[in-house]
Design a protein that fits this description.
Shape of chain B: elongated
Distance between the termini of chain B: 21 Å
Oligomer: heterodimer
Mean pLDDT of chain A: 90
Mean pLDDT of chain B: 90
Radius of gyration of chain B: 27 Å
Low-confidence stretches of chain A: none
Number of strands of chain A: 21
Strand content of chain A: 25-35%
Largest sheet of chain A: 7 strands, antiparallel
Low-confidence stretches of chain B: none
Largest sheet of chain B: 9 strands, antiparallel
Radius of gyration of chain A: 27 Å
Order of helices and strands of chain B: HEEEEEEEEEEEEEEEEEEEH
Order of helices and strands of chain A: HEEEEEEEEEEEEEEEEEEEEEH
Number of helices of chain B: 2
Strand content of chain B: 25-35%
Chain lengths: 261, 252
């Protein structure tokens, strides 16, 4: 059986998948807290060249040809994005390897680098999808002093100054970190979850570990390199074309066989 | 015997089909990190003496007619181990070897596989593994071979392979003969020959691009396809000649 067509189509499919990912990166180039994903080509397993298809000499007995390629989501690049200033008190950015925790309506804890939070009319602090920011509250948010600005320190401590000029300790934003960031599962919308059964450290229970510094009134830009994405796009397009050529060549050969008689 | 030329041509067409498969396999991996392209080499089959007892004078004697071969076969599959370009990714788990040498990984049956593909990741048990999940092997200060554990995302590898400034090291090996590799797929090679640990130039934060040249593959594909057509032409001519022999000479 002639595999030329199938190998070529596997190459085209891989290029398509890689291109999908490149498009994904470019469209998220200005999403705050977005981390670049890498999708790479990977070689498939090999097929032995069989003696029934072609004559083989003594030293070509173990020769094999691979079955094409596939796309693998190799990893997410958790490197730091550029920190840009913002106006809102609840816009935060992390410098270092920590994550903010957000709790969904179902009570599920998710991690994110996107620090665009805001305080709602009912005083709760949530992200744009309504997930609550994970924090220790010494004073319930409803009783935070009105009118004075909330201050969040580099360690996540939330303070405010009341009318008498006293500094009030309101709570602490908890910062999370897995053992290795490669363990995280992407949930979409810039959120991640830790795999079942693996440890997740946080700044409240394990303060001795490194979590990075929190910067208030700032947002972390995405770490997508648009120029790199563009060159990736060109490379992928060329890979697509050369694989299309391999399919037409295989097709030509099959046509030649069909027109022998 | 004219029928023999039919078989000769069809054998060459089989070889060409196999070559096209190989070209397709190379082009499908044109962007696979650490991939090394393979070339199929063809050769003429062994020559054999033929003889004939023709009619006429001396028909009771064996007459040597010379030698003939039965077409072509695949002689060898050569992997070209020339260096691929280094592509910067900036990720600490990406490594490339510049110069000769291979990374060693532990396969599922406990034996060693070798690869040039340094596109690694960290698995659930904090081990450095390949994309397929095979453990990347390192050596500790005493030279014992074992896996590489990564904690807190911190992995720095210097150009000699030493991890985080300790005596622990990413294992790199080299071989006397590159011809004895067996392909396993997934840019992995296995070999029965013994290896020696060798220092290799490791470049962290880079991947080695495949060494497939799009242009060369394109040209090879055109070559194969045209050659296939000319073989088909030859096959047609032989077929027509046979037709004459059978249908026209036979009729008179």
């Amino acid at each position: 059986m002639f595999n030329g067509l199938r190998i070529g189509s596997s190459g085209m499919k891989t290029a398509q998948n890689v291109m999908d990912n490149v498009a994904d990166q470019i469209s998220n180039a200005s999403t705050s807290g977005y981390k670049e994903k890498q999708v790479d080509f990977s070689e498939l397993l090999v097929n032995q060249i069989s003696k029934s298809q072609v004559e083989l000499s003594e030293n070509a007995q173990a020769s094999a040809i691979n079955a094409g390629s596939r796309a693998v989501i190799s990893k997410t690049d958790f490197s730091q994005g550029v920190i840009t200033p913002s106006e809102s008190s609840f816009h935060m950015a992390l410098e270092g390897r920590g994550f903010f925790g957000v709790v969904s309506q179902q009570g599920e804890l998710m991690l994110t680098r996107n620090g665009a939070f805001h305080q709602n009319a009912d005083s709760s602090v949530t992200d744009d999808s309504g997930n609550r920011l994970s924090m220790d509250c010494y004073v319930p948010p409803a009783q935070w002093p009105q009118g004075s600005e909330v201050c969040i320190g580099a360690d996540g401590a939330v303070t405010a100054v009341d009318e008498q000029g006293n500094v009030l300790q309101l709570g602490k934003v908890i910062i999370y970190a897995p053992e290795n960031s490669d363990e995280l599962v992407s949930l979409g919308e810039g959120r991640y979850a830790q795999k079942q059964g693996l440890p997740l450290y946080n700044s409240a229970d394990n303060p001795e570990r490194g979590y990075g510094a929190l910067r208030q009134k700032a947002l972390e830009s995405s770490n997508v390199d648009t120029i790199k994405s563009m060159t990736d796009m060109i490379m992928t397009q060329r890979a697509y074309q050369v694989n299309a050529k391999s399919i037409t060549t295989a097709d030509d050969m099959l046509e030649v066989i069909n027109t022998i008689v | 015997m004219i029928v023999r030329s039919l078989y000769n041509i069809s054998r060459q067409m089989n070889v060409l089909q196999e070559k096209q498969e190989n070209n397709a396999a190379n082009t499908a991996n044109v962007n696979t990190p650490g991939f090394k392209y393979q070339e199929l080499v063809q050769s003429a089959m062994q020559e054999l003496e033929i003889c004939n007892h023709a009619g006429g004078e001396g028909d009771n004697q064996k007459q040597q007619l010379g030698s003939i071969n039965f077409g072509t076969e695949i002689d060898e599959a050569c992997i070209n181990f020339s260096q691929g370009a280094l592509k910067q990714t900036g990720l600490c788990t990406d490594m490339a070897i510049s110069g000769s040498g291979f990374f060693a990984v532990e396969l599922e049956d406990g034996t060693m596989g070798f690869t040039r593909n340094g596109n690694f990741r960290i698995d659930d048990s904090n081990q450095l593994v390949t994309q397929e999940g095979y453990r990347v092997l390192g050596t500790d200060a005493q030279g014992n071979v074992r896996g590489i554990t990564v904690k807190n995302d911190s992995l720095t590898v210097d150009s000699k392979g030493y991890i985080n400034g300790t005596q622990e090291k990413v294992m790199t090996v080299d071989f006397a003969d590159y011809g004895a590799f067996e392909l396993k797929g997934g840019t992995l090679y296995v070999t029965g020959q013994s290896f020696q640990q060798a220092e290799a130039g490791i470049c962290q934060g880079c991947l080695e691009a495949s060494n497939v040249s799009m242009l060369d593959e394109m040209v090879r594909m055109m070559e194969v396809s045209r050659e296939f057509e000319s073989n088909q032409r030859a096959l047609k001519v032989v077929n027509e000649t046979l037709q004459k022999t059978v249908n026209e000479i036979g009729r008179n």
